[in-house]
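note to self: dont lose this again. the chain is below, predicted strucutre after it. 348 aa total, dont forget to put it in the shared folder this time
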Amino acid sequence: MVLQVRGVVLPEREERSFWIDGDRLRTEPVRGAELVVDGGWLLPGLVDAHTHPGTEDRAVPFGDQVLRRHLVAHRDAGVLLVRTPGSAARIPGWVDEDPELPRVRSAGRWLATPGRFFPGFGRDVDEADLARAAVEEAQASSGWCKVVADWRFDQPALPLEVLRAVVTAVHAVGGKVAAHCQTADGCRNAVEAGVDSLEHGMHLDPGLLDLMAAQGTALVPTLSVFGAGADRMRAAEPSARRDWWLAGWAGMLPTVRAAHEAGVTLLAGTDSFPCGTVGSEVEWLVRAGLPAEIALGAASWAARDWLGLPGLVEGAPADLVAYDADPTLDPSVLAHPSRIILRGRIIA
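---
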């Protein structure tokens, strides 16, 4: 059965009709199609560019049942594409074969050198073997790998020359590198090494933003998870770590705004549970000073394009979410999709 949808397409703000034939969008009318969306606003599916489905607790092993539950939660919220920058285990192949689950761009296991992650939770590797391991994870996943470039505020970040070797090796096989960074040195080393995405970016020096824009390093600030912990950290006993964290948080929103003004690609990622809450990250991006349409694009069409998928155009995958109200006027609308279509199938 051919389906028809009609509404105002974002970001173009043009009223259009699409016909869904199988798992593709078509612009040529099909007689007798079933009209399943008639009015409202159409987006090419939401995107969470930083999520870790499959495990919620370091004490519980990565599992298929939890992975499916997390991905279904994303899907039911209209998140039809996710990027997993690191996980406790590689995302299994059945995920890509299941038409009822969101599309996944995975980065294999977290790559952690000694002292820079939870022991045994990712793939523990010495600095000398990191480039080789990064290539292995990128080739075993969706072309991405994830390196923990720093960890504790009072310990050294991963050396610049090590990160450069990782980026060179992974780029040589057509892959991309995501880097966890929360210290000034970690951020600087990752940017100067030429990583493809900077995850979190706490304590990121705004002086690096022009270089990020020029070389195409995206920033995934995960503001919502930091914002959720801010009051708890303020209430904590005074300590060097507390002061460091609060200083970093105080600079994150202004840095995100400056990153946008510098032309850095910004992407929405939650890094938290429950899954399916990327709308809250859009709200945080707006709070940081991004125009509403840019913030929404960071969780939809711009993020899809960055991950290699088109928006709502002829021949594109039939992934879309419809809303009764304009989400650029009120991001809270994102929590209430009126229709979700994934791979040409009506989900809700």
